[in-house]
Write a structure and sequence with these properties.
Elements: E1 6-7, E2 13-14, H1 19-32, H2 40-44, H3 50-61, H4 72-85, H5 89-94, H6 101-123, H7 127-137, H8 143-146, E3 153-155, H9 172-192, H10 195-203, E4 211-215, E5 220-224
Antiparallel strand pairs: 1-2, 3-4, 4-5
The structure holds a DNA duplex.
Amino acid sequence: MVRSPSIDKNGIKRGAWSEDEDNKLRAFVERYGHPNWRQLPKYAGLMRCGKSCRLRWMNYLRPGLKKGNYSLEEEQLIIKLHEELGNRWSVIAAKLEGRSDNDVKNHWHAHLKKRVRSTNCVNNSSSMEQFTESSQTGGPSQLNEQSGSENDVVVDTSATLLQPTSFPELSSSDLYSTSNSLLNGITDWIEEESVEQLSIFSSLGLLPDSFSCTKSVDNFQTQHFDHFWTQPFDNFWTQPFF
DNA sequence: AAAGCTCCCAACCGCGTACTA
DNA sequence: TTAGTACGCGGTTGGGAGCTT
């Protein structure tokens, strides 16, 4: 997953960091700080460029950095801030305790971007607005009220799907994927079935409350996942250091 | 079993900005 | 004012791991 270590023509090492290098950098920065990244590797006994040292420290070694799964709240905040600020990853990361800009950026490209895109696609509207709005209030928005004619059959049950407390070992991304698959399955099924069957399905509490379905006489459309994220889820440079 | 593909994270690169002489 | 230097940011890439065929 990391680049193979190599040494360029200037004798600067590149690629993946070894444990020994990490230890040297960590020990040096914790003892002396980092007032001059360019000079640091020389005094820390590292064959790296200052830029590489800074990056390694900021994204991996810095104390208080969180690694691993993002919480629902963190993901909501990233999406909200990205909508407001664009790709200003350092500003966004600063709002998230223990996350680096690189980490936030990677998580966005790997998980959140396509999620936002698909949500926008499904809803064909300002879903992010609803997303962030409902995230703040903690409750579901009122999509059903936007549904049109009296011929519409509106379903919005109180059943829930894939609570994180039930699946603590799954990340929110995993839960999202699984729930999305299930909901797509339900959607496909509903598109093939009658309104009557849909009503039965609803009355039995078998639809999640993140799911709403509108069926008009001449126009069938499903709307789901708008509320998924609102569900309860859970001058000392005088001597070399080494 | 193995070849090909996709995902995703760590690291690199280039550019803009701040600072200093 | 300008040139040089260092830093920080955001875009991009490399490549291992896991998945699919």
